[in-house]
Every structure is written in C-alpha cells, then in structure tokens.
Amino acid sequence: MDCHSDEGLTREAAGDVSLSRMSDQLFLDNDKFHLSVHHLNEISCVDCHSDIEELNYDNEIPHKAHLEPVNCTACHEAEGEAFSQSVHMEIRGKGITMQCYACHGYHYVKRLASASVAERENLFCLKCHNADNYHDWLPQKQAHFAFVECTVCHAPTVPSHIHLNFYDLVTNKFFNGNQIIEALGIGFDEFLPLIDTNKDNIINTNEFEDLLLILRQKNIYTEVHAELVVELEPILHNVIKGGSTNECEKCHSADSPLFDAVAIVLTLEDGSAEHYEVEKDVLNSFSMSSFSALGGTRVKFLDKIGLLVILGGICGAGGHLFIRLVTAPLRRRNKENEQDS
Q: Are 95 and 77 in contact (CB under 8 A)?
C-alpha cells in the first residue's frame, strides 16, 4: 500500500499499448479494499499474486514489473468447474476475453448475501447485457427486472429465496441493518426475541405487522420490498445457452417452491447480513404492495369474500327460482280470478 495507494501510480510499457497507463489496476483504494470479501477473510496481496516471492526496496519497483494473471480457481475450484461448462466460457472461443474479474472486478469483490436485485444485476449481468432487448415476450418485464434476479430464470437449477428489505419512503433508499437496529434501540441479537413473541423462531404475519407498527412509532416510514434472488452457490456460474426457463407457472402458482424460503435481511457494514426466517403467508400481507406473483401470493381473505359473493349470488338466484316454483299455483289462481272478475 506504500506504493499502490498513490492515485497517480501508472505503468508504462514501451511498445505495448495494452500495458500503458493501467492506473485502474495499479492504484488501490484501501478503504474499499478493507470492505472486500478477500480482506475480510484475511487474504493478503501475495495470496493471490503468488509469483511475488520477495520485495526488494532497493529497486524502483520492489517486485518484478509484470506479474502473472491471478488464478482465481486455485481457491474457487467449484466455481471454476461450473464456469468451464458455461456459455461465458464458450465465448472465449470467439476471441472475447472473459475472466473472473470481468464480472467481479479486481480488488473490491463484495459480499452479496444482502445485495438487492438491482445491485446484483448492475454488478454483473447489466455490464454486458441489455435486458430490454431480449424480453419482449415477458409481460410486465420492468417489474420482473426490478424484483427478480436474472439468474432465477437463467440458472433455474440454483435454489432461490425471497429477501424482504425495508425501503425508506422519505429518502428513496434501502435502510441498512444498523439503521433499523438503532431505531429499535436494541442489538442484532435482540431483534428476533423482540419480534418473535410466540418464541417459535419464525416471524409470522401478526408479528410482522407489529414490527412495521413499531418502526412507524420510531419514525421509520418504510415500504417492504420483496425480491426473488438466488442462493450464492458455485453452480450459479454454470449459465448455459438454452438453459433458461420461461415457464410462468414456476413462479405464478400457489404451491410454487420459490416462495417457501422467506427472510427479513438486515445488512451489516461489512456487506454481510443477518437473516430472520419469515412465514410464507407474510407475502399475502397488504404491506407487500411492491411484490405481486398472481397465484403465488394471494390474499386469502379476499378469496373468501369473493367466494361469499359468488355463493350469495347463486343462493339469491336459486332462492328466487324456488319461490317462483312454489308460488306458481297461487299466482295462476289469482290470475284466473282476475280474469273472471
């Protein structure tokens, strides 16, 4: 960092334009690096740049000037194996350089467990792909882009789950975990005991609504955003051509497995997150106005009202017909008496 914290640090290589002034690689923002997943896991510079065996500060450059490319698969073997079978590996045969850092960047790889759909898509898919150009068949496509991660459909074998995030209606930004915890005046370890009043370690609909009421009393005016995201497993890197799904029923059905795992996510400063299991029926709550999967998140109370309306109509029509049939002889006699008169 004595050298690489210098924003003006550049590399020039005579006769090789591709190596000239690569300041984006040579300057390292130490504050951002400290929040990277590698630093948080105590990975040092030479763990990745393994061809640096010693530093000689008598030289202008204390190590050799040109280092070998970092071999990410030395640590991430399962990810590398999944990637080797993917469509992104195939494009290397067309002369397109597709390395790990093309998606993940160099030194600022973040923890993504708490990342929103927008953050995940902007970090990865939308760097190269314009989703608007390829989804004309998809109804309400902007709503899907906003609340469903790309890989839910494009890597359908990867398990997925619902994240519930608190969205600030005043600043139009997501609350982080510390803001929620500080507003409640508790610690992270006290969050579930405070909300889970029946002590079953699952937040049910009533407890969820009570949480929102408590937040309003603390001047936290929030809307709950439900987002469908994938589990961060190695197989996620195996995106294959023709492997995506466009079966609407996978999501839009009452028994869709995609809604079985629901959790409130509270983000920590280092990018990690605390997850608190939530009852699936919370998705039926009126507080989930930003999330709609018809058939998958039905408001059952409205179903009951609708059923009563239908039954009432049937009973009304049936009762009217029954009365007409029963009173037919009487009405016939009355008509005959009127004619006689």
A: no
Report the alpha-carbon distance of residue 285 to residue 208 in Å, rounded.
9
Let me know: does 161 contact 277? Beta carbons within 8 Å. Answer: no
CA end-to-end distance (rounded Å), the chain: 115
pTM for the whole structure = 0.74
Whole-number Å distance between alpha carbons of 161 and 215: 25
Nearest CA among 119, 175, 157 for reference residue 233: 157
Instruction: Please count the other Cβ atoms lying within 10 Å of the Cβ belonging to residue 73.
Output: 14
CA atoms within 13 A of residue 222's CA, in its CB half-sphere? 26
**Tens digit of each residue's pLDDT (9 = 90 or more) over 69-100:** 899 999 999 999 999 989 888 888 777 778 88
Complete DSSP assignment for 78-137: HHHHHHHTSHHHHGGGGT----HHHHH-SS-PPP-TT--HHHHHHHTGGGT--GGGS-TT
- Read off the tokens for 337: 């008496």
Nearest to 276 by CA among 213, 191, 187, 334: 191
* C-alpha–C-alpha distance, residues 68 and 66, integer Å: 7
Backbone angles phi, psi at 267, to 5 degrees: -80, 135
3-state helix, strand, coil in the chain (%, to 5): 45, 10, 45
